[in-house]
Amino acid sequence: MPDLDQTTVSMKNRGQYKEIWRRFKKNKGALLGLGFIALLVVCALLPKLIAPYGFDDQQLSRRFQSPSWQYPFGTDEYGRDIFSRVIYGCRISLTLGLVSVTISCLFGLILGCIAGYYGKIVDNIIMRVIDVMLSIPNILLAVSIVAALGPSFFNLMLAIGIGAVPGYARVVRASILSVKEQEYIEAARSNGAGDFHIIMRHIIPNCMAPIIVQATMSIATAILSAAGMSFIGLGIMPPTPEWGSMLASGRAYIRDYWYVVTFPGLAIMLTVFSINLLGDGLRDALDPRLKS
Amino acid sequence: MMIPVLIGVSFVIFSMLYFAPGDAADVILGDQATLSDKQLFRAQNGLDKPFLVQYLNYMKGVILRGDLGTSYVTRQPVTDEIIARFPTTLRLSALSVALAVVIGVSVGIISATRQYSFIDHFATSLSMIGVSMPNFWQGMMLIIVFAVWLRWLPPSGFSTPLHWILPAVTVGTNASANIMRMTRSSMLEIIRQDYIRTARAKGQTERVVIMKHALKNALIPIITVVGLSFGRLLGGAVLTESIFSIAGVGKLMVDAIKLKNTPMVQGGVLFIAFVMSIVNLVVDVLYSFADPRIRSMYTRPRTKKLAALKEGA
Q: Does the interface ipTM go beyond 0.85?
């Protein structure tokens, strides 16, 4: 019998994905977001092909050039091409977003599953710990973790990831609570399935929609927080072309050279904007009931 | 509920900073200090005691005397330094939240009542952009336009009302984006309810229908978001404060973290958690003003008791 079960599930899934894509396509904003993200991914994978200069090519004779055909976004205080640095920055921001979201997703999923599935005392303890974490402002939590561990790329991702764990745990817990009492869970249990099997095979697949949406949206938040952390000097250090640290080093010159801070910020904004558009589109496509 | 959370926060922060690599004595005294100097410093600050003793001593001071320790850098009580900075942060947060509520709620209502109109699309896209902008970058752009190019407003400081405008607009517009989205979705849900149709059917003017019947019922999620952003601002307008060189709590904290001024960091985080839990408490009280059902949960037992007494008498 399990074989039959498998095939029906996968056939249903194929139909489902098509249906989701059909709904997703209708949302012009989400498609726009997806397109821009694809562009960013290309920039992140092949920056050498796109950027006209290296991210660290200094030309001290050409400091603070205004935007022109030669330097589309101008040059900074060391004569480096800002456009090229923005292109190289894609890789850092996208990696950072993905890795920190993976960290928080993993921990949030585990905590939320345990809390939601087992309930009672376990649930109470985990949720109180999460309340504690939520009453420390995210940026302060991230700042103290980085201060405690020392500033580095990985610690930054860890700090931002940990800060987002409570959000996931709550989403996961809530959706597990809504699924847990369904008949098919009871059926699985009466077939003799263990807790782990039930959670992995029956509960999580049925809670995927809100988790995927939350994950997409929090990539955006992670990129914003990382930029903020780099800006106060606790994130990625210059000369690495991270957008936030470009803003930090350009800050001293905003009175005379507007383009030094304008373009890296625009890059952050457009990236976060398209991820948010994508997240909105996914939410509507994955679960039409949630559509307002 | 508030007290266990605060104790939890204090424990988390205390242990995180305790187990963090790097010794406060090295950082504060510098490379020149001798070994005996460092030992003296540790003894003076109670840093040579075991972890739990240090934590309990700290908590005893906090609870009995409101004493959050002494700053390593300025040698002033942490409590005094935070209290000195707090009014500035409070003023910035209050101004920004007021602005955010005015913009967010009014635009949200307009958007919801004219769903899918041009105004609605424009406002939702704008709010989406608002959420996507790094707050500090928005601040820098405003400085470039209004302080550097137009020269209308001062670029930094927080001394006169003229100085308040740019920081408050920076933080306020950013917070208003969230409030607007929440107002819109909450209003959209309410507008479809039957009692709104009833109110219209009995010939009520649209203005009263929206303001009284719809908005009042849509208030709970709006209050939640406003409370959340107010709480966040009180502790976390770190970046805006640093952009505009405002001497608030956020800037104090970041400076303290950079200098490894542990008592200041602990005290600051604890203070912010305390302020946030007070904001949450106020939000809970406001819920009961907005929703009679919540209010009745707290008042019913008393009226029942009174009724029972009357019956007995």
A: no
